[in-house]
Write the structure tokens for this entry.
Amino acid sequence: MDDRYIHDRTCVYNINYHLIWCTKYRRKVLSEEISNRLSELLTEIGNEKGFSVVEARVGEEDHVHCFVSAPPKLSVTDIVRWLKGISGRHLLMEFPGISEKLWKGHLWNGSYFCETIGSTSEENILAYIERQSSVQR
């Protein structure tokens, strides 16, 4: 089988997400040092919670792009909650200067962007499903 598929006990999958989230008030607080620590934290969180952070980069010191590969048993909501919650708590403790530009103890904005990333286009999937039909319309 193809290398991009992950074999689990009960399923084979290739589930990937492109996640983006911003700092509170789009404050430019993610310096190079903080960005490097954030990247380490995100990888550690993924390993601990059972998914992989394939790539994570900070853009313009105020937002994060993250490519995540996860098993189907994990919801994207939980993944984002863990990544933002745990990383935010650690960064605020390790870099107390961040709090000077933010208030109320929150590093991240409450929202996020999520996009699924697959190896096959939507058109190919729809065509494949259409070909499976034994009933002629």
